[in-house]
Amino acid sequence: MDQVLILGATGSIGLSTLDVLERHPDRFSVHTLTANRSVEKMLELVVKHQPKCAIMACPEAAAELEARLPSSSGTAVLSGQNALQEVASAPEIDVVMAAIVGFAGLRPTLAAARHGKRLLLANKEALVSAGRVFMEAARAGGAILLPIDSEHNAMFQCIPANPLGHPEMASVEKILLTASGGPFRGRSRDDLNAVTPEQACAHPNWSMGRKISVDSATLLNKGLELAEACWLFDCMPSDIDVVVHPQSIIHSLVRFTDGSVLAQLGNPDMRTPIAYGLSWPDRIEAGVAPLDLVDVARLDFQAPDLDAFPCLRLAQEAITVPGGMCILNAANEVAVAAFLSGRIPFTAIDLVIEHSLISVPAGEPQDLGAVEALDHDARSCATDHVERLCRASVGG
Ligand code: NAD
Ligand code: MG
């Protein structure tokens, strides 16, 4: 029986993971659930899944959870960042689902990598920011790194892997990374100035957390995924082409030296990659509706529009600069939060990122401390720029 830790259990990926786990009580046991501050949702999950432990990153939320749990509950409540790291390193944990959103997930995810867990990686921001530091920790710790991002899971399914999950890249000629194009596909940049957070979060094919939904709308998500694929499959940005595929039925493709192109298809439902991560190299039932190709009827492909969506171009540039993706990720987190709270327009997100990439001195971080320092510098630069843009818009 595998003992499972879900980092970010109350989020979109966390809940989908619990849905798959529930279907296989003979194989998996929910050991620990974690969340930031959503007490209501965590209370529901604890009552339903009865984990040994529940961790809230926010101490006040942990106190409230503890007070509201029935006295008969066998679940221990802990709080704080250290508790997250400790549980991710604990010997009794076999499988870690890394599904905290953003850079906030780096420390516990890295701890799981260092301690050789079977690591299901949804938290792409952690990998993209820490890059080599992350991959070396996973290698040194003997972690089995299983990509959960649907595109990377598709690539992983198409590329042969050795028993540790390391992809055999010798015969791979090109990776084709698909993008849905998001809710604003086909619009011009001028057309995007006044879009609202609600419109940006209304993804046509996927139901996801708000931050990744905005990333998907700006195409910044595809930039993060480009870097994610380079680290996971040990390749260069020039080995990967981004293809817009609005139906999100093909989740990515791999072209081999003999001209063969393999693709992974399925309904846009994260339970498929999650189930594959949990069961690899086997397959298990995931609760996903069978793909009906006649109903889908057609599959379209287009080139991405880098004029309307400059975030992807910024990522393509940042990826060539050591430390560039750490700066880009931090600036994006600041800009997206400012957009979601109504402080800056959608089209200012790329301005904040571009300003930060130009202003913050880059350099490849050699350890966790250096990654955190670079993230911190990029965040303060981006925050200053957001304030400047807000003042300018009030003044103007
Ligand atoms: P979400 O916002 O729905 O959930 C985020 C989870 O992280 C919640 O449980 C929240 O409590 C927790 N969290 C947030 N801030 C935290 C903090 N500071 N400390 C500790 N915990 C914190 O997000 P999501 O859509 O589930 O995405 C999670 C990750 O998976 C992201 O990195 C995203 O890019 C990636 N991902 C998501 C999808 C998807 O379909 N949702 C697909 C591919 C990749
Ligand atoms: Mg994805």
Q: State the domain count.
A: 3
Shape: globular
Radius of gyration: 20 Å
Structure ligands: nicotinamide-adenine-dinucleotide, magnesium ion
Oligomer: single chain
Structural class: alpha/beta
Distance between the termini: 62 Å
How are the strands of the largest sheet arranged? 4-3-2-1-5-6-7
Proportion in β-strands: 5-15%
Low-confidence stretches: none
Individual helix count: 17
Average per-residue pLDDT, rounded, comes to 97
What is the compact description of this entry?
This protein is an alpha/beta fold. The protein contains 17 helices and eleven strands.
Record the SSE blueprint:
Elements: E1 2-7, H1 12-22, E2 28-35, H2 39-49, E3 53-56, H3 59-68, E4 76-79, H4 81-89, E5 95-98, H5 106-114, E6 118-121, H6 124-130, H7 132-141, E7 144-147, H8 150-158, E8 172-179, H9 197-201, H10 210-218, H11 220-232, E9 240-244, E10 250-256, E11 261-265, H12 271-279, H13 293-296, H14 310-318, H15 324-340, H16 349-359, H17 368-395
Parallel strand pairs: 1-2, 1-5, 2-3, 3-4, 5-6, 6-7, 8-9
Antiparallel strand pairs: 8-10, 10-11
The structure holds nicotinamide-adenine-dinucleotide and magnesium ion.
Magnesium ion (MG) binds next to helix 8.
Describe this structure in words.
By secondary structure, this protein is α/β, with parallel strands linked by helices. It has three domains: 2-148, NAD(P)-binding Rossmann-like Domain (Rossmann fold, 3-Layer(aba) Sandwich), CATH 3.40.50.720; 149-317, no CATH class; 321-396, Rna Polymerase Sigma Factor, Chain: A. Helix content is 46%, strand content 15%. Strands 4-3-2-1-5-6-7 form a seven-stranded parallel β-sheet, sandwiched between helices. Strands 9-8-10-11 form a four-stranded mixed β-sheet, covered by helices on one side. Helix 3 (59-68) links the parallel strand 3 (53-56) and strand 4. The longest helix has 28 residues, at 368-395. It is globular, with a radius of gyration of 20 Å. The termini are far apart. The mean pLDDT is 97. Residues 8-14, 35-36, 38, 57, 99-101, 104, 122-125, 149, 206, 208-209, 211-212, 270 line the site of nicotinamide-adenine-dinucleotide.
